[in-house]
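For the sake of transparency, this paper describes our internal protein records without simplification. Such a record has a labelled line for the sequence and another for the backbone structure tokens. Nothing more is needed to write down the fold, since each code stands for a local backbone conformation. For reference, a complete record is included directly beneath this paragraph.
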Amino acid sequence: MDTVLSHHSVSVTDLKRNYASILAQADDNRPEAYLVPAPYFERLMQHLEDLEDAKLARERANGPFVEVNPQDL
């Protein structure tokens, strides 16, 4: 089974049967929903994580640094 990276999910069958009520449960913000293939969503989430990691690396690039003796590890 594929990993679901969401706080809420519904089956296609439930969505077809209860479309209006399912969307009513979502926030009142527009748009109400995006339907994307799971592999695309997983790549999108990985890309966002990579961007966050890159930002953190840039923020830490100029220190402060801690001197460590490898033999102490």
Summary: Residues 66 and 72 are 13 Å apart (CA to CA). The radius of gyration is 21 Å. DSSP finds three helices and no strands in the chain.
